[in-house]
Specification:
The complex is a heterodimer of chains A (about 280) and B (about 800).
Chain A (H helix, E strand, L loop, with lengths): L6 E3 L4 H11 L3 E4 L5 H6 L7 E4 L9 E3 L3 E5 L4 H6 L1 H6 L1 H7 L5 H6 L2 H6 L6 H8 L3 E6 L2 E6 H4 E3 L2 E2 L6 E8 L6 E7 L9 E8 L2 E7 L6 E2 L1 H8 L3 H11 L10 H22 L2
Parallel strand pairs in A: 1-3, 2-3
Antiparallel strand pairs in A: 4-5, 5-10, 6-7, 6-10, 8-9, 11-12, 12-13, 13-14
Helix pairs in contact in A: 10-11, 11-12
Chain B lengths: L7 H7 L12 H4 L16 E7 L5 E7 L1 H5 L3 E5 L1 H4 L6 E3 L5 E3 L5 E2 L5 E7 L2 H10 L1 E6 L6 H4 L16 E2 L2 E2 L5 E8 L1 H10 L2 E12 L8 E7 L4 E6 L4 H12 L6 E4 L15 H13 L3 E4 L2 H7 L2 E13 L5 E13 L26 E10 L5 E3 L7 H19 L3 H8 L8 E2 L5 E2 L4 H11 L2 H16 L5 E11 L11 E2 L2 E2 L2 E7 L5 E5 L8 H13 L6 E5 L16 H28 L6 E4 L2 E4 L2 E7 H10 L10 E6 L8 E11 L5 E11 L6 H20 L31 E4 L17 H17 L14 H10 L5
Parallel strand pairs in B: 1-16, 14-15, 17-20, 18-19, 27-28, 34-35
Antiparallel strand pairs in B: 1-7, 2-6, 2-8, 3-7, 4-5, 9-10, 11-19, 12-17, 13-14, 13-16, 17-18, 21-22, 23-33, 24-25, 26-27, 26-32, 29-30, 30-31, 33-34
Classes of the chains: A alpha+beta (about 280), B alpha+beta (about 800).
Chain lengths: ~280, ~800
């Protein structure tokens, strides 16, 4: 449980961080909260020669609540998402989801950017951001580009981010007034990844549904959202069960995971409907 | 208030003796981060050792190339079996009469087995060097199923003993067979079963789990070449036994070995045995002439150091049609892994599993245990229980529930009509034990009344109706457990480990000013010995507990004892403490008589002093007596006030308890919630109720973990699937229910203070209570037996198999 040796870099602005990445190519990795990368390094399943810590970059730690969108810096910790009153007003589903990630110690270190950029299908934020139709700002040597959350995830640990790019901000459009919302996570214990988790937003004539840890990427299902928007809960569940592709692991076999997925989704829908103004 | 004006009751209270909810004196340093654990030991020039471990569960080791590792600057040595063989240390004896490879000798038998030991200037370099050792393996067929291991054409696991027909515990009938252990009367039991009104047969599995103490295992070995003295600091639950074993293995004279157990961060049986890390550290220190530290990481702890349970228990129970149990038959297939490194008293290869008749008056019984080798880690330790007692309690408490189903009886009533009655104690069980004391009916009735058992059953019936009508997806389970522990090993006439009798000891020195130090052969790992043993002494000697230092764990200073596990500290060392104190009091009485110029028999003991009978104003306090012992020339008496006692208990003690668990279960997701848990424990005389409650809370939480998710699982290739705390369930505050504790007091008749021990009862009784709650929730829908752990998907599978998902 001791990582191999590495060089540690702590740049103070994004341009410097990108430059370091550019210099070292795939020998370098960005370090955010470290709660995925550091354990992998301790197991020596990851051995980056250069670690670029983003903690010194102040601009990545901001939350801006705009009229149309909320912009969250990549280095905002889960704890900060929970504690931010403006965010809780604008997008309460983020607080509900963040409170179900790991435990308080991990949440004070783990960041939204790390959670999104790592591409771990067990992470909660990717599915939530797909549900919310968020966009990710990526900064590389050629400047900044935006990628939709719904197009970012390719397979487990593979994303649209290039090796020399840094995910710097998350842009989340504000949902229509009165929309109902819920993030429901079934897990074995505190600190665990989801057995099944569902993010649901719904309102007048629209609905968006995404699920976590039920395929090698988060699963946002357009057909499920369409069915739910039309008031067809069972149609929504059926469409989602078609879209997911869970694998057997210590949490259980595939049949159980599908059953749990349906239960989680029904709970989330019921709660979202109850919250709809 | 001076002691002249205090009443005897006030004086007794000021001592903080037995029965006092005295705060734990250990917690001052633990809560301030001032504990001193083995990884806190740092010596000048200390090196760090780390293991190269096998990625395979069964493989031949074709070659080991350590050249690249040795070439890394800062690497001092790389040890392999070839280096240890000339010393005869490439294998070591186990506590179970088997032997175990210290480092892979030609093959490996489980994933995580120790293959080479790298010694470097620091732990970072050691970790780097481990990566550089190249081992060439040839994979062999893997057996993780003990039943398949006994098939005629199963792969030979232990080539070293494949032709050996006789094992440490009698004949071996197959190359992967370790022992057969039989108790009771087979023919009589078969006859009872054949003639019974009702019989039930079932396979009960107690899965493989792990004690997983907060602190992993480790040691620091320091060979002083100038003095020839070896000092080993380590996480040892039995420091004296380790000293003797080290001496026997290494040939170093026992007086030249000093074992020190510093603060230990939990043991739960994991730290009883001897591990390759200890041997390699000692050898490395001898070879390099420098201290060598070895500390396991969490994954190594879960993969390689002693697991617990893995018992397949086939049971048959016989009863009359009105529910009187007439016979019990049990066959256990015991999976011991690659080496038999069980930590049991030598004559008990399946521990005290023959307590499996439980709390019931069962006239006829038969038990047969077969030990089997598989490609899994060795162990089989008593994880917060006396030897194999939690297995036994789980077995009988499941069998009784199954019998209740068969008889269509209430499980609480079936237990009540079969309990051993109060007047039957001392009770000779069909499988050979003599239960010392008990009052099961009183405890049971108190427990059922406290939880309003009848009301719970009515609520459950309503819930079943609601479920059937589609009004809820949650079921209610009422889990019952009445357990009898057997602890305090044990009488030297039948209890030894490697020939070492399982007595224990206490040495007391009263200082001239009336304070004291007591040293014991046991070692606390969180049990609070420094608090509770001082309380026993306070009551016995009349010295305030706060004036007594309790010291354990240093073999150079402590009297010889067999250590702390199996809830033996209070039954054995606690008795030694009382007996040593009584020797001191006897001498103190003679001193007081001389000081008061009366005959010894004219004095009587009064809390903290000897008083002249009929003249209460004439007395000498223990404090005054202590001063006189060192400063007066008393005719016929040696100066000083010290005593030592080695206590060989006449019998085990038999704590018992009655537990009720109420659990809500979601049939769709398998999610569960413990709504209520009531735990009544009878541990005889209660020394510190606060510590007892804390022990019960901790033990119940481990029981919850075991029943509801904690396991060491292997895939078919022998890979450990649960090697980190992500998958190995350790409950947090969030998962831990609120416990209600209660008690009755039935003292042990043979123990000097009537105490029986309690630390492990909650694990023994808790596991069946939690598991029975899950089973009980589904009883109305036809469930008989579902194996633990009851994690979400396995509960879901119960509902699925019963057709409850529509």
């Amino acid at each position: 449980m001791i990582p191999a040796g590495f060089e540690y870099h702590r740049p103070t602005d994004v341009a410097s961080a990108v430059a370091i990445l550019g210099r070292h190519g795939d020998e370098a990795r960005v370090l955010a909260g470290g709660h995925s990368l550091i354990p992998m390094m301790k197991l020596r399943m990851a051995a980056p020669a250069h670690l670029v810590d983003l903690r010194g970059i102040a601009e990545l730690g901001r939350i801006e609540i705009g009229d149309d969108a909320v912009v969250i810096g990549a280095m905002v910790a889960q704890h900060d998402l929970i504690a931010h009153e403006g965010l809780a007003q604008a997008l309460p589903i983020i607080r509900e989801a963040a409170l179900q990630i790991a435990d308080p110690q991990v949440r004070s270190m783990g960041t939204i950017g790390g959670n999104l950029a790592n591409g771990d299908p067990g992470n909660d934020m990717p599915g939530l951001m797909q549900c919310l139709d968020a966009r990710f700002a990526l900064v590389g040597p050629g400047g900044e580009r935006e990628v939709a959350a719904r197009e970012f995830y390719e397979s487990a640990y593979f994303t649209a981010r290039e090796d020399d790019e840094i995910l710097t901000r998350v842009i989340v459009p504000r949902p229509p007034a009165g929309a109902g919302w819920a993030y429901e996570k079934i897990k074995r214990k505190i600190g665990d990844y989801a057995t099944a988790a569902a993010a649901v937003m719904l309102g007048e004539g629209f609905a968006s549904v995404a699920m976590t840890n039920l395929a090698d990427t988060p699963v946002w299902c357009e057909a499920a959202g369409r069915a739910l928007a039309a008031g067809d809960v069972e149609g929504c569940v059926a469409a989602m069960l078609e879209a997911i592709d869970p694998a057997e692991d210590n949490r259980g076999p595939v049949a159980f995971k599908k059953h749990a997925a349906a239960a989680a989704l029904r709970r989330a829908i019921a709660r979202a409907q109850a919250r709809r103004a | 208030m001076t002691d002249q004006t205090m009443t005897p009751e006030e004086r007794a209270a000021s001592l903080e003796g037995m029965g006092c909810r005295r705060k734990r004196v250990e917690d001052v340093r633990f809560t301030q981060g001032k504990g001193n654990y083995v990884d806190d030991v740092k010596l000048p020039g200390m090196l760090f050792g780390a293991f190269v471990r096998s990625p395979y569960a069964h493989a031949r080791v074709k070659s080991i190339d350590a050249e690249a590792a040795k070439a890394l600057p800062g690497v001092v040595a790389v040890l392999t079996a070839a280096d240890l063989a000339p010393l005869g240390l490439h294998w070591m004896p186990t506590l179970a009469g088997d032997k175990q490879m210290v480092l892979a000798d030609g093959k490996v038998l489980f994933q995580g087995q120790e293959v080479a030991f790298v010694v470097a200037e620091d732990r970072y370099l050691a970790a780097d060097a481990v990566e550089l050792v190249e081992v060439e393996y040839e994979e062999l067929p893997v057996v993780t199923d003990p039943f398949k291991a006994l098939e005629p054409d199963a792969p030979v696991l232990r080539e070293d003993i494949k032709d050996q027909k006789e094992g440490a515990h009698g004949p071996r009938r197959h190359h992967n067979h370790i022992f057969t252990w039989e108790q009771g009367d087979r023919d009589a039991t078969e006859k009872v079963l054949a003639e019974a009104d009702v019989t039930v047969e079932e396979m009960i599995h107690y899965h493989r789990t792990h004690p997983c103490p907060l602190e992993t295992c480790g040691c620091v070995a320091s060979m002083d070449k100038a003095t020839g003295k070896l000092t080993v600091w380590g996480t040892f639950q039995a420091p004296h036994a380790i000293r003797t074993v080290v001496s026997l293995i290494s040939g170093i004279a026992e007086h030249n070995i000093r074992i020190i157990s510093p603060d230990i961060g939990g043991g739960f049986g994991n730290k009883v045995g001897a591990y390759p890390g200890y041997v390699c550290s000692v050898v490395a220190s001898i070879v390099t002439g420098r201290p060598v530290k070895w500390i396991e990481n969490r994954m190594e702890n879960l993969m390689s150091t002693a697991f617990a349970r893995d018992y397949w228990m086939k049971g048959r129970i016989a009863a009359t049609k009105d529910g009187r149990i007439t016979g019990l038959w049990c066959h256990v297939t015991a999976d011991h892994g690659g080496f038999d490194a069980c930590a049991d008293p030598t004559k008990f290869p399946a521990g005290f599993f023959n307590i499996c008749t439980g709390s019931y008056d069962i006239p006829t019984a038969y038990l047969c245990v077969d030990g089997v080798y598989t490609n899994k880690a060795p162990g089989g330790v008593a994880y917060r229980c006396s030897f194999r007692v939690t297995e036994a309690a789980y077995f009988i408490e499941r069998m009784v529930e199954l019998l209740a189903i068969e008889l269509n009886m209430d499980a609480a009533e079936l237990r009540r009509i079969n309990f051993i009655r109060k007047e039957q104690f001392p009770y000779a069980s069909a499988l050979g034990w003599e239960y010392d004391s008990g009052d099961y009916h009183t405890a049971w009735d108190k427990a059922l009344k406290a939880v309003d058992y009848e009301g719970l059953r009515r609520e459950q019936a309503r819930r079943i109706e609601d479920f059937k009508a589609g009004r809820t997806r949650k079921l209610l389970g009422i889990g019952l457990s009445h357990f009898t522990e057997i602890v305090g090993a044990g009488p030297v006439k039948n209890c030894d480990i490697l020939g070492l009798g399982m007595f224990d000891s206490c040495e007391i020195r009263i200082h001239p000013t009336g304070s004291a130090i007591a040293r014991l052969g046991t070692i606390s790992q969180g049990q609070g010995h420094a608090t509770t043993f001082a309380q026993i002494l306070a009551s016995e000697l009349g010295i305030p507990a706060s004036d007594i230092t309790v010291e354990e764990g240093d073999t150079d200073t402590a009297p010889y004892g067999l250590g702390t596990y199996g809830s033996r500290s209070t039954p054995v060392a606690g008795a030694a403490t009382a007996m040593a104190a009584r020797k001191i009091r006897a001498k103190a009485q003679m001193i007081a008589a001389w000081l008061l110029e009366v005959h010894d028999d004219d004095l009587e003991w009064d809390v903290d002093r000897f008083v002249v009978k009929g003249a209460p104003e004439r007395f000498k306090t223990m404090k005054e007596i202590a001063f006189a012992a060192y400063n007066q020339a008393i005719p016929g008496l040696e100066p000083g006030l010290e005593a030592v006692s080695y206590y060989d208990p006449p019998n085990m003690t038999y704590p018992f308890g009655a537990y009720v668990c109420v659990m809500e279960i979601d049939v769709d997701t398998g999610e569960w919630k413990v709504r209520q848990f009531y735990a009544l424990d009878d541990c005889g005389t209660r020394i510190n109720p606060m510590i007892i409650e804390g022990q019960v809370h901790g033990g119940l939480t481990e029981a919850l973990a075991i029943a509801m998710g904690q396991e060491i699982a292997y895939d078919e290739m022998g890979n450990v699937k649960t090697g980190t705390l992500m998958d190995f369930f350790i409950p947090t505050a969030w998962e831990t229910p609120n416990y209600v504790t209660d008690h009755t007091v039935t003292p042990s008749p043979h123990h000097p203070i009537g105490a029986k021990g309690v630390g492990e009862s909650p694990n023994v009784g808790g596991v069946p209570a939690f598991s029975n709650a899950v089973h009980d929730a589904f009883r109305a829908f036809g469930l008989r037996q579902a194996h633990m752990p009851h994690d979400h998907w396995r509960i879901w599978r119960i509902a699925e198999n019963l057709g409850l998902h529509g």
